[in-house]
């Protein structure tokens, strides 16, 4: 009896324990499986290829029949900083190049086809002035397909909103040069002497991004004006100087956490633009010279990566994207834009709201802008690639 009852007792303990551990095991197995499938999706999302073709490697081909995709004077929404022809640029060949991936052609940009995809949706570009140029380009690429009374433009700082009424769609821009909060967040008065970035604060911006169907982010040049940057981290009571890469890593991590906890990957889509290269020193592509992008009329031939494009910063982006649960697609426009020393606004833009004066134009080494791009121009190609993804990716 004694033996039997202890056996029974043992069995009574053993069965629930066995069941519990079986359940625990099953649960663990499911979690691991789920993470494995998330990881797989994430790799695929991040390293997007179009029908087996890497759209980011190729070369520029002169094709005046197809490019530019719109004319400077036919887009009423272009702003003065980008209208290089109107601002006096003497050459226009920079408008005639088509990006030709090595193994395929980019599909023709059909505004109506993209507008159909965007029906009832909001597409928002978030970031700095380079991102604003990409937004302006997208507006110009789409607006020609919409009759006058069915479109409108609104400025609601720090946002600009283009609405295609017939499609109930909007193409929006949100100014946030560091993505996280900073003292440069004012939409127009953002030229601050001492930058201060709140590396762990994002909600003030993030609440405007909630529920947006398609979000496109960028952030790079603002981190790079100095080797170090003043930041504040929790609990925000003291300012510290961080190296640019360290600050960038923390800020992108703040952003990644926001995306992971606010984005529904089944109904929303997030992109991150790789850095937009600069052409500040002509010795990089013409040994012995001492100019910049001014007077350049042709793309660089052959392989080229400028010293201004930090591989360390690019690696931080890639590692951040890989660590996320939401699959963010990385649009790698750096290399294709590297070749385009000819496509910057140079002297044909404004400074502090005014076109350059004759005196300023006589000093291109001081006054040429070799960071921003003319429109139509290189950012149209970034949008041709975004178009390809939005229209052809399931
Ligand atoms: C228009 O689009 C918004 C989302 O951007 C949606 O909430 C609204 O229901 C749409 N309206 C119509 C009439 O489809
Ligand atoms: C950081 O802030 C201090 C105090 O305002 C300033 O003196 C210093 O130049 C700043 N550093 C940078 C890298 O901006
Ligand atoms: C720019 O090009 C023009 C015409 O080719 C030339 O006359 C001028 O010297 C060049 N300026 C510079 C700074 O290279």
From TrEMBL:
What are the GO BP annotations of this UniProt entry? xylan biosynthetic process
Short name of one Pfam family: PMR5N
Give GO MF terms, alphabetically: O-acetyltransferase activity; xylan O-acetyltransferase activity
- The transmembrane segments are 12-32
Record-annotated Trichome birefringence-like C-terminal domain positions: 106-388
Spell out the subcellular localization from the entry: Membrane
Chief subcellular location equals membrane
How does the record classify its membrane topology?
Answer: Single-pass membrane protein
GO cellular component: a single term: membrane
Keywords, A to Z, come to: Membrane, Signal-anchor, Transmembrane, Transmembrane helix
Protein family (similarity comment)? Belongs to the PC-esterase family. TBL subfamily.
Return the protein name: Uncharacterized protein
Source organism of this protein record = Amborella trichopoda
């Amino acid at each position: 009896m004694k033996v039997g009852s202890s056996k029974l007792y043992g069995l009574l303990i053993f069965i629930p324990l066995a069941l519990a551990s079986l359940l625990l095991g099953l649960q663990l197995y499911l979690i691991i499986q789920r993470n494995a499938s998330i990881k797989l999706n994430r790799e695929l999302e991040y390293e997007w290829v179009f029908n087996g073709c890497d759209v980011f490697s190729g070369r520029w081909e002169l094709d005046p029949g197809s490019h530019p995709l719109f004319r400077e004077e036919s887009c009423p929404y272009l702003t003065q900083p980008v209208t290089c022809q109107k601002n006096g640029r003497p050459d226009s060949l920079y408008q005639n190049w088509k990006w030709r991936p090595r193994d395929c052609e980019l599909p023709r940009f059909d505004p109506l086809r993209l507008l159909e995809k965007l029906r009832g949706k909001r597409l928002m570009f978030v970031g700095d002035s380079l991102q604003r140029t990409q937004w302006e380009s997208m507006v110009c690429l789409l607006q020609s397909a919409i009759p006058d009374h069915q479109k409108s433009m609104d400025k609601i700082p720090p946002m600009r909103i283009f609405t295609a009424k017939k499609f109930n769609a909007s193409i929006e821009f949100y100014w946030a040069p560091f993505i996280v909060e900073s003292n440069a967040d004012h939409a127009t008065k953002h030229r601050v002497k001492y930058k201060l970035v709140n590396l762990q604060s994002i909600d003030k911006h993030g609440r405007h991004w909630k529920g947006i169907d398609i979000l496109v982010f960028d952030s790079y040049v603002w981190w790079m004006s100095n080797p170090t940057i003043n930041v504040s981290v929790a609990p925000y009571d003291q300012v510290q100087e961080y190296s640019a890469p360290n600050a960038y890593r923390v800020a992108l991590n703040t952003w990644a956490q926001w995306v992971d906890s606010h984005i529904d990957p089944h109904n929303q889509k997030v992109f991150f633009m790789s850095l937009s290269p600069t052409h500040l020193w002509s010795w990089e592509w013409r040994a012995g010279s001492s100019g910049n992008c001014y007077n350049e009329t042709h793309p660089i031939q052959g392989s080229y990566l400028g010293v201004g494009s930090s591989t360390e910063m690019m690696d931080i982006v890639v590692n951040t994207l890989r660590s996320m649960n939401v699959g963010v697609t990385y649009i790698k426009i750096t290399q294709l834009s590297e070749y385009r020393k000819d496509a910057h606004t140079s002297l044909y833009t404004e400074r502090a709201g005014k076109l350059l004066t004759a005196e300023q134009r006589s000093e291109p080494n001081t006054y040429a802008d070799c960071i921003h791009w003319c429109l139509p121009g290189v950012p149209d190609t970034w949008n041709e690639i975004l178009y390809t993804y939005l229209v052809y990716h399931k």
